[in-house]
Amino acid sequence: MYFDTHTHLDDARFADDRAEVIQKVRDAGVTLAVNIGADMKSSETSVALAEQYDFIYASVGVHPEDVTHLTEADMDRLAELAQHKKVVAIGEIGLDYHYDDVPKELQKKWFLRQIQLAQKLELPYIVHDREAHGDVLEIIRESGYFRGVMHCYSGSAEMAQELLKLGFYISFAGPVTFKNGKKAQEVAKQIPIERILIETDSPYLTPEPYRGQRNDSSMVQFVARKIAELKGITAAEAAWITMENGKRFFNI
Ligand code: NI
């Protein structure tokens, strides 16, 4: 029984076989999943998917790469979508400094604004942080609202400790299984398992041994196995503990 806490099953890459993929996900023992909104459109489609499938919940929010044309009216729409009983978080939101196309100041503005939205709605939030660790931590502190998870964690062990002190959860995806995933593996070893979530971020970030293929939520088992190995527990224990952590974090 696995909880994939971050997946994009509404993605266009599943357009031709979504129903089959979701059946495969269920058959692989995934009993809970949160489908993540990343822009206004996918926030809508996440909620629609959650309506269609019992075991799928949704988050709504706008990823830093997509904030260029955001408006306050969009915030109102997200708040409206969040009233749905299967919407369990705001996200994914954050900062992405990998590409230069969205000005940093604009990203920061909408990151903070969406944390405030989460606070107002009394929901947790899901943070995307790519090459922006310092600024992400600064905005989280500035917000004063710490009910968050760092998705696909790529920061340092020191930053993880800071986040844990604030009350954050840390989530690991496919990269923790990679041969060059030593940094994330070290963090996973050091932090308490009670604060660890697992995810696929499918269709991206396919874990070993399937790296290179399209990812889907059934592959969350490989992330669970890696966490088990790093923690010296069984895969079943890792699956069970991360399931309980996810239910607590998302209040499911
Ligand atoms: Ni994602």
List the SSEs and their pairings:
Elements: E1 2-7, H1 18-27, E2 30-35, H2 40-52, E3 56-60, H3 72-81, E4 87-96, H4 104-121, E5 125-130, H5 133-143, E6 148-150, H6 157-166, E7 169-172, H7 182-190, E8 196-198, H8 220-231, H9 235-250
Parallel strand pairs: 1-2, 2-3, 3-4, 4-5, 5-6, 6-7, 7-8
Bound molecules: nickel (II) ion.
Nickel (II) ion binds at residues 6, 8, 36, 92, 201.
Mind explaining what this structure looks like?
There is one protein chain. By secondary structure, the chain is an alpha/beta fold. It has helices spanning 18-27, 40-52, 72-81, 104-121, 133-143, 157-166, 182-190, 220-231, 235-250; strands at 2-7, 30-35, 56-60, 87-96, 125-130, 148-150, 169-172, 196-198. It has an eight-stranded parallel beta sheet. Strand 1, helix 1 (18-27) and strand 2 form a beta-alpha-beta unit. Helix 4 (104-121) packs parallel to helix 5 (133-143) and helix 8 (220-231) packs across helix 9. The protein starts with a strand and ends with a helix. Bound molecules: nickel (II) ion. Nickel (II) ion is lined by residues 6, 8, 36, 92, 201.
